[in-house]
Amino acid sequence: MLGVAADGYKFPPYVIFKGKRAARIAQEIRKWDENGYSDGCVYGVQEKAWMNESMMLDWIQKVWKPFTASKGGELTMMIIDQFAVHLMPSVKKAIEDCGTIVEFIPKGYTSCLQVCDIGLNKPFKDYMRAAVNEWMVVNNAEERPQRPTVSHWIDHAWKRISHSTIINTWAHIKLADRITSNEEAVVINKDDTLNPGHFMDNDDAREDDILELRESDEMSTDEEDLI
């Protein structure tokens, strides 16, 4: 699970591996630092590697709550889609208990208003795909990479998403100021219109992280993009 804040902060990726909560994989994850996992991710284990109520509450406890605590009591807001787990009363209460207002994206508008869908998932997946391809060249293509290896791929790919890419994606949905090539915030003119798929002007210094709208044949807009 990936997430970003409007100031450009990147939440550590929440990686869910397939396994039973008390079995071998779960025990391995509990000692992730001793088993070679990346320290840039947060880990969970679920039987189907899916984001269910328990995993969402774990994410709130391990990722969201520390973030809100760092704000010194300031009110925060979370903008999320209407994925079934997000709508659960227990999840909503846990988020609100962190001093957070929850705003749900209207159904059918995820690809227009969810920042990761608009400009971050595509470059992230490209970086992941490049890492996989490089690994397959060096190793037997029939082999499966080890979980610690995958964790480092995820961490590295996420770190390659630039601060300006995040800010400018927020700017696209009019919730932040755009950053130019000089890394200076520029207030978006109210008359400034952005064409879908062409969010940035020629002054944008990014080379790799080009914003793209998610293609229509990708996963359902009301489901979460999980790893």
TL;DR?
This protein is α/β, with parallel strands linked by helices.
Description of the molecule:
With 227 residues, this protein is of the alpha/beta class. The protein has helices at 24-30, 53-69, 89-96, 110-113, 115-138, 147-159, 163-172, and strands at 14-18, 42-46, 76-80, 100-104, 178-179, 185-186. The chain contains 7 helices and 6 strands; from the N terminus they run E-H-E-H-E-H-E-H-H-H-H-E-E. Strand 1 (14-18), helix 1 and strand 2 (42-46) form a beta-alpha-beta unit. Helix 2 runs parallel beside helix 3 and helix 5 (115-138) crosses helix 6 (147-159). It starts with 13 loop residues before the first strand and ends in a 41-residue tail after the last strand.
What labels would you give this structure?
Nucleotidyltransferase, domain 5, 37% helix, 227 residues, alpha/beta, two-stranded parallel sheet
